[in-house]
From TrEMBL:
InterPro entries: Hda_lid (IPR055199), P-loop_NTPase (IPR027417). It comes from Skermanella cutis. Residues 149-207 form the Hda lid domain. This is DNA replication protein. It holds the Pfam family Hda_lid.
Amino acid sequence: MGADDFLVAPSNEAAVAWLDLWPNWPAPALVIFGPAGCGKTHLAQVWRARTQAPRVEPGDLRIESLPRLLDEAAAVVIDNADRGTGDARTERALFHLYNLARETGGHLLLTSESAPAHWGIKLPDLRSRLMAAPAVAVGAPDDALLAAILVKLFADRQLRVGGDVIRFLVTHMERSFDAARRLVADLDAAALAARRRITVPLARRVLAKS
């Protein structure tokens, strides 16, 4: 989850560029959105390491504890921010946190699966603030990025895998970072159990069971 382990590709380069602009964002908040497993959490973790920002879920926000969140790091990561909308208490807390960040020069990084326009926000003032904040999409990994991720994950486990296996996996697997991690772990376990190297037939069997 470190910066050196994050692979920049067309699907995420806009989000990386926005994070590199920090702290010179045009608003107190930035929203990074995209499908599950696209790398939002990794990006947020890279930014957390840079800013020392705490990470919270929207449902854990409490108005009375907001000053402490911004006290030391002046930055907060809110994961799955879209899941907190529709709840009056959570929306009020997020609204106050946004205002507090604006007043103190702090910043909020919000992650979600969709853009704020689709969150169903009921509090008008919160909606207007988040709609005005920059929102950048992260797409599912393309073939080149998915292949690079697989190669790195195998290398992290000191496994040598042929290009034919990588090409087969890229063609047939679920297209997400999370799926790549699970698949490499499953292949490693299967190869150990069978006492054989990872081949296309083994990969086909593991995929059939997943």
